Amino acid sequence: MSRGTTVSKEKRIAALVPNVLGFSPGQRVRIEFWENFLKDAGWKIEYFQFEDESLHEVLYQQGRSLTKLTRLLGCYGKHFSQALSKFASDIIFIYREASLIGPALSERLIARQKIPIVYDIDDPVFLPYKSPVNGWASLLKFPKKTHKLFQLSTQIIAINNLIGDYAANFNEHVTIIPNCVDAEKYKPVESEKKAGQKEVKMVWIGSHSTMQNLVEIAAPIKKLQAENACPLLIIGAGNSNLDGVDVEMRQWSSETEVGDLQEGDIGLLPVNDLEWNNWKFFYKTIQYMAVGLPVVARKIGSNEEVIENGVNGFVVESEREWFDKISLLIKNPEMRRKMGENARKTVLEKYSVTSQMPRMVEIFEKVLRQSQNKN
């Protein structure tokens, strides 16, 4: 090595995540998505997953409670042992919770290592929640341990203002980083491809567990379809409980998702009345908007932050409003076009990789600088 040559020190993140990689939608669009941008900035991530493959194999199936409990406790023991050992990292990153079950014991042990903690929270995990598959597991969740995680963290990243304001009651160091999309991938289809299309296609994307949200607006959809040529494309749910509704079902895949969304003309986002949903950031809202679709969404959670009513979409509450606003868009192609353009513009300005990823990387850089200045 020649004189004067310097070697930059590798910056390391120990990422504690609840699920196996590539599975959880939230985890995928947070730290797993961020990894490439952190890598470009000189960071290396080592993942520490609470869930292992044997637990993942059974956890989301119906029944098998004893097997699930045994494997959960096994993963907890492994996780606790990791918390007792020294992490070879500059920053400890925690997504949602360091442990799927139990109180904040491992979190306290981790904090004793005096390594700065960056805590990312994208769901209201501080609220009690009963899983439709594993209701018994709610007894093991200890949701209020999130308050301790807030207090132990050097920096909190919150997905929206609602959760950010809540976290600020425990720790003033909160930055809002919403979910974002790659606007070069999620983009409108060329208008010529839809020029000869006579019908107006509504689209909804979701999973089997969120299908109940769509059932909430079955009645206005039936009425709309009785008066208009407006089929409903459902992406990802696997089956439909919408008797009497003209539905086309598509399996979700990362390879076809964008193309499927681009076929739509109006994005739908119904949400039911769970307390949990009042705090949510709905990723599908910005997916629709990124491909240039006006969105009709329930007036709940961060939809009011994302959607400017009457400009890039509509926020609605009653069945009558669902019918009226979708009907208005069906009958006014110029309104759909203009609102779709505004929706795309909103994403480019506030919810794109270009607008948000530099801010995310700077959080880690800032925490590292602060830590180095203390030493």
What is the strand arrangement across the widest sheet? 2-1-3-4-5-6
Distance N to C terminus:
29 Å
Mean pLDDT: 90
Q: Secondary-structure element order, as H and E?
A: EHEHHEHEHEHEEHHEEHEHEHEHHH
Shape: globular
Largest sheet: 6 strands, parallel
Strand content: 5-15%
User: How many H/I helical runs?
Assistant: 14
Radius of gyration computed on alpha carbons = 22 Å
Query: Residue share in helices?
Result: 40-55%
Secondary-structure map:
Layout: E1 11-17, H1 25-40, E2 43-49, H2 53-59, H3 65-84, E3 91-95, H4 105-111, E4 117-121, H5 145-152, E5 155-158, H6 161-167, E6 174-176, E7 202-205, H7 211-215, H8 218-227, E8 232-235, E9 247-250, H9 257-262, E10 266-269, H10 283-290, E11 295-298, H11 303-306, E12 313-316, H12 319-331, H13 333-350, H14 353-374
Parallel strand pairs: 1-2, 1-3, 3-4, 4-5, 5-6, 7-8, 7-10, 8-9, 10-11, 11-12
Helix pairs in contact: 2-3, 3-4, 8-12, 10-13
Could you describe the 3D structure shown?
The protein has 375 residues and is an alpha/beta fold. The chain is 40% helix and 15% strand. The protein is built from 14 helices and 12 strands. The protein has a 6-stranded parallel sheet, with helices on both faces. Helix 1 links the parallel strand 1 and strand 2. Helix 2 runs antiparallel to helix 3, helix 3 packs parallel to helix 4 and helix 8 runs parallel beside helix 12. The longest helix has 22 residues. The radius of gyration is 22 Å and the shape is globular. The N terminus is likely disordered.
